[in-house]
Design a protein that fits this description.
Largest sheet: 2 strands, antiparallel
Number of strands: 2
Strand order of the largest sheet: 1-2
Structural class: alpha+beta
Length: 71
């Protein structure tokens, strides 16, 4: 499988749903994959992040937006 397939597989296997995705490359040719995922709570988010960090080829996993209040 390719990197994108491995990323989406790790998200779904961690029990999260992908709401939106954006994939692009930077000037040096590295892929930047941005996913909006639906998680149950902060602990679930940690589980998803760890799953993504374990995918071969992943350099960094960042949280770009905070959880909405009350979720």
């Amino acid at each position: 499988l390719g990197l994108l397939a491995n990323l989406t597989k790790s998200i779904t296997e961690a029990g999260a749903s992908i709401f939106a995705a954006q994939i692009k490359t930077n000037e040096s040719g590295k892929a930047i994959n941005t996913f909006e995922v639906i998680v149950k709570d902060a602990d679930h988010l940690v589980k998803v992040r760890r799953a993504l960090e374990m995918v071969p080829g992943v350099i960094k996993v960042e949280r770009l937006m905070p959880l909405k209040e009350g979720t």
